[in-house]
DNA sequence: TGGTACATGTAACATGTTACATGATTAG
DNA sequence: CTAATCATGTAACATGTTACATGTACCA
């Protein structure tokens, strides 16, 4: 199976640009909100990739709008490259979850510290779960003429499932590990 | 909360070195097997970090063994740095799951292609799930004098939960999306 | 009129990946 | 004796992160 050579980050941006012209800022927001759970980009990266792709003719910069907004639109060449890339077998996922390292080496921590970290992270994950739940609901109750894209729905459901799993796992941690002593 | 400055990859190696001297090769294997689901390293990286840490005095190279095995052991300074690092708040996780991108943009794919990718990945995830299940069992039925480390158990359980979630999600994909037509 | 969110971009640096070169040991 | 696995390492390159600089528009 031919493997992927071009930059996956760039390609993900191309994918979003199929929906219409977007600025770098918009792209960062869209990626973070919609697929932040399994794909991430930084501003720097996005602007860099946009420049590169513009040089390669995969996208084209539009006129500056208010606030120096610079919308990019995908070109015919861009669509072609994107399709070719998409049809190649995606590689395995990579995850970097520093909190899990902290848990793994938890015996080297003063008691209670791990619990603080977990509580801190729990908030973030609850928030994401709620966001995904909202997205799922919005998709399910989409009105009328534009039927919801089942592919988008599937990815959002992944996000929701992932967050649910993480939160359940937090709940499953033995009290002794996170320094919350058992009821006396 | 003070944030982390030193290299998390290096620190993860230091963590493993607490169990005793290990070679670069061993470290790669240990990380991949035990925590491959939420942390990953490449050989190159490991050898690079080992050199750096040796220069900094955090680890010490032992004598060459057979096959030029070069075991490193952690120093007192290394333990100190590790503990300090571990006690700082870990950052959020990052995930890069290219298959999910392929799903997200699935409408641009020829029918059936997505299904092939999913089947391919399913195998890998089933294997990982089984490995984690084996690890969990081994930990649970650990005999006698050395009680199993509950922190390690917790992380392995995360791996198992994660893989289960991914596989369930695969199963939940509508047949239409993956090109497996409904029963006629 | 002042703060917040919007918006772009560069530079320096850190980290991660791929490809390659080299060779020892072991199992069959 | 030969293939697979073990084992180390370098070099070149690609990607990702952090910090900074600059300024606009909106809204309370």
Task: Give descriptors for this structure.
7 helices, homodimer, mainly alpha, DNA-binding, elongated, 5% strand, two-stranded antiparallel sheet, 184 residues, 3 strands
Q: What does the model show?
A:
Two copies of one chain form a homodimer. The first copy, chain A, is mainly alpha-helical. Chain A is built from seven helices and three strands; from the N terminus they run αααββαβααα. Chain A has helices at 8-17, 24-35, 43-56, 76-86, 98-104, 113-140, 150-172; strands spanning 59-61, 72-74, 94-96. In chain A, strands 1-2 form a two-stranded antiparallel ribbon. In chain A, α2 crosses α3 (43-56) and α6 (113-140) runs antiparallel to α7. Chain A is elongated, with a radius of gyration of 21 Å. The termini of chain A are far apart. The model of chain A has no long low-confidence stretch (mean pLDDT 90). The interface between A and B is large, with 64 and 64 residues. Chain A binds a DNA duplex (28 and 28 nucleotides) through residues 7, 9, 23-25, 40-45, 47-48, 51, 66-70, 94.
Low-confidence stretches of chain A: none
Computed over alpha carbons, the radius of gyration of chain A is 21 Å
Pattern of helices and strands of chain A: HHHEEHEHHH
Return the structural class of chain A: mainly alpha
Query: Largest sheet of chain A, described in full?
Result: 2 strands, antiparallel
Secondary structure tally: strands of chain A: 3
Alpha carbon gap, first and last residue of chain A: 59 Å
Strand content of chain A: under 5%
What topology, given as strand order, has the largest sheet of chain A? Answer: 1-2
Shape of chain A: elongated
